Amino acid sequence: MEILISLLYFFHEFLDANLDLFYLLALVLIFKDFINSKKRNLEVIKYMYVIILYGCLQIVLNPDIILLRLIINLAKMYINLFLFVYVKEMIFDLKFLRNIVYKTSFLFLLFIPISLVFKVPMLWRMNDFVNSYNQTRLKLFYYEPSELSFHAALVAVLLISFLLLDNNAREKRKIILYLISNSLLIVLSAGMGGIVSLVLGIVTIYLYKLVKSFNIKRILISFLLFFVSVSTLIYLMYSKNNFYLRVVDIFNGKDGSVVYRFNTSYEVMVQMLQKTNGLGVGFGNLNTDLTRSIYSAYGLVDVISNSFMYFIGEGGIISIVTLLFLLLFLLRRIKKEEGILKYGLLVFIVIYQVAGGYYTNPVNWIVYGIICNNYFMKTKGERL
């Protein structure tokens, strides 16, 4: 099971971003749940009930909605919610999650030398016109380089948590090796969203650990880390490398990608809410020729490059309520003894979706399920 999940995590966008292999896994689990007369499907229907009703309301009030797109989008939401409920209710131990992370990290490590030798389109994006700072970017088998950055950074957040939770010197050496290889992947993919999310996730984990066990040793380590960070920043400033130049442009409002992800996406979302009286343009209907033509005057080129704004633009007021409910639900499910792992995960996944991604990405909902799972941090349990 661990090997299967690791392979799925590594290859799940291999066919296409819209034909995610985790969807196929979820369909198998949904069918299995139905055959075994489990109650997970009933719980998902409970969550989906209001959203489905709202989708029907959108059909009635918005004649421009493409019905097939709405149905497909609601089906994706159902699949993602099922994955969330399944992972939330799974009984497994921390070793099970650790083994998945290790096996995934090994796959990443294995493909680093392969990708450096074979610079082919399947593994690399050449002449990237979107990112003018790094035009040759590693993507491995993901849809785009930023997705590789996200996936490698998510694994790195978990590895950092394991590093702080583990007292075994051998395990720590293995974790550090995998952290180095994952960091190299993030650098080669040049994904700013993954980098920022990773940094904030690590800071959250470390601050939680510092507050929980405050002592002189940790204060000294904190000063050392601060010194290393400042030294690195000074080096980047004087070296004038692409990463530093991009950060400067971001703060000066000159980075086109960041401007589109935040300023333009926000303006388009607001216009969508105003023009539809808070109803939204319809689930699954943002990425259509009609919607792009209507909102192109406000800067919409393809889609809104922000998971939450994308969801709000399509779902209107109900999406805002849903997101607030989801955030509160996640926070309430984190117990004090689980904070060192789960708060870092929560900050990471939220920040990344602010920076980009899609709310129908199943990995997001699997992470939500891990955050809400109350078993693996305290029991060996049964591996499902």
From TrEMBL:
Transmembrane parts of this sequence: 14-32, 44-61, 67-86, 106-124, 148-165, 177-207, 219-238, 307-331, 343-360
Keywords: Membrane, Transmembrane, Transmembrane helix
UniProt key word Nuclease: no
Signal peptide: none
Record bears the keyword Chaperone: no
Protein name as annotated: Uncharacterized protein
Species of origin: Gottfriedia endophytica
Taxonomic lineage of the native organism: Bacteria, Bacillati, Bacillota, Bacilli, Bacillales
